[in-house]
Amino acid sequence: MTDNGNTQQPGSDAARAGDHGGRPVPLDRGHIEGTGGIPQHFADPGLPAHVHREADLSEKAAKKAERQVALMFIISIVATLLFIVAYFAIPQDYRAYVPYIGTASISNLALGLTLAISLFFIGMGAVHWAKTLMPDEEVVELRHEQRSSDAARHAAVDGVYAGGDAAQLGRRPLIKYTLGGALGLFAVPLVLQLAGGLGPLPGAELSQTMWRKGLRLMRDPEMLPVKASDVTIGSVYHIMPEGIDQQEHVLEQKAKAAVLLMRLDPADLKVPKARDWGYHGIVAYSKICTHVGCPVGLYEQQTHHLLCPCHQSTFDVTQDCKVIFGPAKRPLPQLKITVDNEGYLIADAAFHEAVGPSFWERG
Questions:
Q1: Is residue 160 in some structural domain?
Q2: Residue 288: pLDDT above 90?
Q3: Could you tell me the pTM of the whole model?
Q4: How confident is the model at residue 70 (pLDDT cuts 50, 70, 90)?
Q5: What's the CA angle centered on 239, arms 306 and 203, to 5 degrees?
Q6: Is 162 inside a domain boundary?
Q7: DSSP letters along 44-87, please?
Q8: Which helix (H) or strand (E) holds 306?
Q9: What is the number of other CB atoms lying within 10 angstroms of the CB of residue 152?
Q10: Higher pLDDT residue, 34 or 218?
Q11: Distance (Å, rounded) from C-alpha 254 to C-alpha 249?
């Protein structure tokens, strides 16, 4: 490549960088003719000259474009603010007839519409900004070795800064501030949706079961009450609380309230609390494994071990269902029981701790 009368080899750094220090080369026919390293269709003598936009030639037109872009960002800001107002002001269960749609949730309609407008005008503003104010000249960057020369690397950094200057962020503060406001506020609906849009907080639902003082222990699935005299040593029963079938969310309640009832020789119970919370060697423990919530349904009569079939967590009933093997970290919670006047087993209290796997409040 010739430059100022000096001949350069096609593979040299100088030939690759040209007289632009490695920066992208504007596609102007006077520069690209004879370069050899640029595709032929770029060097076509018939390549039309670049057509400048009105905003490139007139500061008045540029100001007009700036105001148009800013207006779109402002519309986005207003739509986001309306989203926030609608989120708190319109009840989620409020429904009404909407033409061409039918009966719909007004909250969902308002949130979806304002969010769509907010995002649409951020995009429109960015596109209009690029079309009217940002540079639109085609450039070509010649291939070179993986590591550029130090001069080219510094020139690349300078090119980034030059691109920022060319985008006119420094000269167009109105666009900069309104874009920042639009993008900043647009994050608020996303936070609100993540924080509150996934449904109501569970409250105490994760920690409480249906068990209450006085509820009879019912055999599952027959749902028949259990007399203490019918529970023999070595037997095991799957138990549900009395009246659970009348609950509104019966499957959810059963998943939390399932209990295993066993009878041991009182002398085999090594923990005083286990004996005191049972009745003449009859003890009741949550059936929900404290690892990931699988049903603990395997009872080894000779060893008095309860086994979870999912991940083999093993609990020793003689030691208040202490974990002796497997990934579970907590013993199975014990249900305190006694008998009523007819000799039927009843709960003497609710569970004193949450059943099932650990969660964020419990560790």
A1: yes
A2: yes
A3: 0.50
A4: very high
A5: 95
A6: yes
A7: -TTPPPPPPPHHHH-HHHHHHHHHHHHHHHHHHHHHHHHHHHHH
A8: strand 305-307
A9: 19
A10: 218
A11: 9
